[in-house]
Amino acid sequence: MRVGCHRELLLLLLMAGMPAASFAGSQPQQQRKWPVPYRRFDYRPKTDPYCQARYTFCPTGCPIPVMKDEDVIDVYRLQAPVWEFKYGDLLGHLNIMHDAVGFKSSLTGKNYTMEWYELFQLGNCTFPHLRPDMDAPFWCNQGAACFYEGIDDVHWKENGTLVLVTTISGTMFNQMAKWVQYDNETGIYYETWTVRAGPDKHAVVWFESYECSKFILRTYQKLADLGAVFNKIQTNYTSITLFTGEPIYLGNETSIFGRLGNKTVAAAIRDFYYLFKPHQSVEEFFLNFLKIVDRVVLNHQFYLFYNLEYWLLPTKAPYI
Ligand SMILES: *[C@@H]1O[C@H](CO)[C@@H](O)[C@H](O)[C@H]1NC(C)=O
Ligand SMILES: *[C@@H]1O[C@H](CO)[C@@H](O)[C@H](O)[C@H]1NC(C)=O
Ligand SMILES: *[C@@H]1O[C@H](CO)[C@@H](O)[C@H](O)[C@H]1NC(C)=O
Ligand SMILES: *[C@@H]1O[C@H](CO)[C@@H](O)[C@H](O)[C@H]1NC(C)=O
Ligand SMILES: *[C@@H]1O[C@H](CO)[C@@H](O)[C@H](O)[C@H]1NC(C)=O
Ligand SMILES: *[C@@H]1O[C@H](CO)[C@@H](O)[C@H](O)[C@H]1NC(C)=O
Ligand SMILES: *[C@@H]1O[C@H](CO)[C@@H](O)[C@H](O)[C@H]1NC(C)=O
């Protein structure tokens, strides 16, 4: 699974360079609650056979074991920079990391790793497929939790972090496991982008991303709620951020691409995503990336798909 994650991070780097800035003149619209709450679902639907992973999701995954109540379990923060992959200092400079959490049972001596990532790689979660036989863009954007036995110490330690953050009881671990099940069943779609009004700390957040680091933070929060006391930890979580004016709600697949949908909006969305074909190679992606930047800067537009709904983000090139 690490291969998949590395790939993820490469794309993240590319997207991180996307220029954008806050836009003052967005149209007034009905009052919304920001950030838009991430939508949870009743259950996880089967994935469509059209979606084919290049790297099998969670190949060595196993069910979360039931621990003895009296067990004492070490919890580790696992973080590795992605610059290991290819792009040297550049990624290191951007501080892009992959996050996971480790557990070690003192009764059995066994250890485990848990992470959350895309079922069909990041490109497919970030941009849809445009299929000739379908009007609506087609998404392969599920993400899920993966739990497996073992911690690859060398991988995490050598260039990243492997630190003990807390120690929990077997009871707490088992409660956490129930929550992971719930979280995994109901939080289904990967959301790549964080979208904010500007780089300022106090700027409004329009959308929160939903990816690997968010899962780790939720897990820590759950353990804290269950009574775990954490060692002081410094965390630098990164996410790929777009700075835009107030998002404009466009609708869902049916309301836009259905019979009664607005054909102009439907065509604009397809046109926009045409630039982001997920099948392309890294080199193609680089070339298209320039077009994308151009498009986003010149047209001040980015179409975001979030909670299975489409939004128009009014982006604007930075003032010189
Ligand atoms: C998804 O992404 C992977 C890797 O980028 C690619 O091999 C695969 O064909 C893509 N498409 C689908 C439909 O999953
Ligand atoms: C989460 O859901 C995915 C998809 O159904 C599944 O493959 C995976 O094993 C689940 N993870 C855990 C930790 O149960
Ligand atoms: C996890 O278990 C493996 C195999 O026993 C061992 O090599 C590794 O050091 C352990 N790591 C931690 C953090 O406990
Ligand atoms: C750590 O970084 C060095 C230098 O970039 C690299 O050669 C090495 O393979 C990395 N280690 C691991 C375990 O990925
Ligand atoms: C987090 O970022 C700060 C400031 O950029 C840096 O000094 C610190 O070493 C980073 N910590 C980790 C764990 O990467
Ligand atoms: C799509 O939006 C329409 C109009 O707002 C709504 O009636 C419909 O239930 C929505 N469909 C889905 C699948 O959410
Ligand atoms: C379709 O949407 C565009 C852009 O929001 C708008 O200008 C146009 O009036 C709409 N057309 C119809 C038929 O609703």
Automatic annotation (TrEMBL):
Keyword Nuclease: no
A GO CC term assigned to this protein in UniProt: lysosomal membrane
Catalysed reactions listed for this entry: 2 1-tetradecanoyl-sn-glycero-3-phospho-(1'-sn-glycerol) = 1-tetradecanoyl-sn-glycero-3-phospho-(3'-tetradecanoyl-1'-sn-glycerol) + sn-glycero-3-phospho-(1'-sn-glycerol); S-hexadecanoyl-L-cysteinyl-[protein] + H2O = L-cysteinyl-[protein] + hexadecanoate + H(+); 2 1-(9Z-octadecenoyl)-sn-glycero-3-phospho-(1'-sn-glycerol) = 1-(9Z-octadecenoyl)-sn-glycero-3-phospho-(3'-(9Z-octadecenoyl)-1'-sn-glycerol) + sn-glycero-3-phospho-(1'-sn-glycerol); 2 1-acyl-sn-glycero-3-phospho-(1'-sn-glycerol) = 1-acyl-sn-glycero-3-phospho-(3'-acyl-sn-1'-glycerol) + sn-glycero-3-phospho-(1'-sn-glycerol)
Taxonomic superkingdom: Eukaryota
Keyword Signal applies: yes
One example of a Gene Ontology biological process annotation: lysosome organization
Signal peptide: 1-24
Keywords: Glycoprotein, Signal
InterPro entries for this protein: CLN5 (IPR026138)
GO molecular function: hydrolase activity, acting on glycosyl bonds; palmitoyl-(protein) hydrolase activity
Primary role: Exhibits palmitoyl protein thioesterase (S-depalmitoylation) activity in vitro and most likely plays a role in protein S-depalmitoylation.
Family (UniProt): Belongs to the CLN5 family.
Protein's UniProt name: Bis(monoacylglycero)phosphate synthase CLN5
Organism: Chelydra serpentina (Snapping turtle)
Lineage per the UniProt record: Eukaryota, Metazoa, Chordata, Craniata, Vertebrata
